[in-house]
Design a protein that fits this description.
Length: 266
Amino acid sequence: MSGDTTDMHSDDSSILLAREGALARVRFNRPASLNAMGFAMGRLWRDIAREITSDDTVGAVLIEASGPAFCAGGDVREMATSGADGGAVTETAHVIHDGIRAFVESSTPVVAAVQGAVAGGGLGLMLAADYIVASESARFVSKYAEIGLTPDLGVSTLLPAAIGQRRALRMLLQDVTIDAATALDWGLVTEVVPAAEVAERALAVGRSWLTGATGAYGQAKRLIRAGAERDFAANLADEAATIGARFDTPEAAARIRAFASGKDAR
């Protein structure tokens, strides 16, 4: 990772946070565990998400992962050996959900670089991103029913929103593993590229938001995400207020003048 890497907690490097100008880079960093999210990692995820989305100097976010897999979901081995009960699992789910909500509900666009396996709750963490660049070798699977559990980390909402209810039910009720080409066809990911190009392509997407109309990209993302949860009239009112507010920004004013004069605004 380029830039200065900053651990949110000195004793936990399970997620790394680095800044490259206005781009925040979040890296899952438990490769030996396929980046499965345990109790401490869940708290770190929430804290990092809150920090990033409350920082006005962050214009875009890149979520990436160390090792052969993006995220294998929750750390089932830790759950099984820690002595935790269902209450602790519920509490941890709420913590991780807070991080997912922070990214999904923010006006900061998020891109994910995805390689290898994405399983269980890893699907929800991936779908917290607005733009997903996946490796040709990536694979996506539920695995919840296999261990007698139910969807969490936003999977029951974000997965059908991405691929439709029937396909989401197929993945969850049949434990179907889908490949990258199918994920692209279904709308689960945005792009599929060769494995060697995933990191650079995702980085290029994040950087492109910073060299374009950054504020407009962020507000467009917010409108789309919020629209799924509200009635049509509320969405229209938000659209009207947002485009008016954007019209009065220096960013838009310069681009509108350039467009009106026939010049390239970039």
